[in-house]
Amino acid sequence: MAVLRLLGSEGNLASASNVGFAKLVRVINNHSAVQVITQKNAGGTTLATVTLGIGEIAYIAKSSTDTLTGAATSLAVSVGFAN
């Protein structure tokens, strides 16, 4: 089991967010349909996308200035792994 260190407050990804300049982000799809999460660099260029299933959680490593966008029901928080 992974132990997480929370580094901020959870918020939604309805608009582009760098999630507090996080380098590691826990994202959960808190909706009854799949959702696409888009990662963009500071210049707005799309770097990657991922589809999260219903209730699925992903850990996304990113540069601190990269943004993530999803939906109002895509919830994200900056995290670190702890021992």
Q: Which helices and strands, and how do they pair?
A:
Layout: E1 3-6, E2 11-12, E3 24-29, E4 35-40, E5 46-52, E6 57-61, E7 67-69, E8 74-82
Antiparallel strand pairs: 1-8, 2-8, 3-6, 3-8, 4-5, 4-7
Indicate the multimeric state.
single chain
Query: Overall pLDDT, averaged?
Result: 95
**Individual helix count:** 0
Globally, the shape reads globular
Q: Describe it for me?
A:
The chain has 83 residues and is mainly β. The protein has one domain. It is 0% helix and 51% strand. It has no helices and eight strands. It has strands spanning 3-6, 11-12, 24-29, 35-40, 46-52, 57-61, 67-69, 74-82. Strands 1, 2, 3, 6 and 8 form a five-stranded antiparallel β-sheet that branches. Strands 5-4-7 form a three-stranded antiparallel β-sheet, with no helix packed on it. β4 and β5 (46-52) form a beta hairpin. The N and C termini lie close together (10 Å). 20% of the residues are buried. The model has no long low-confidence stretch (mean pLDDT 95).
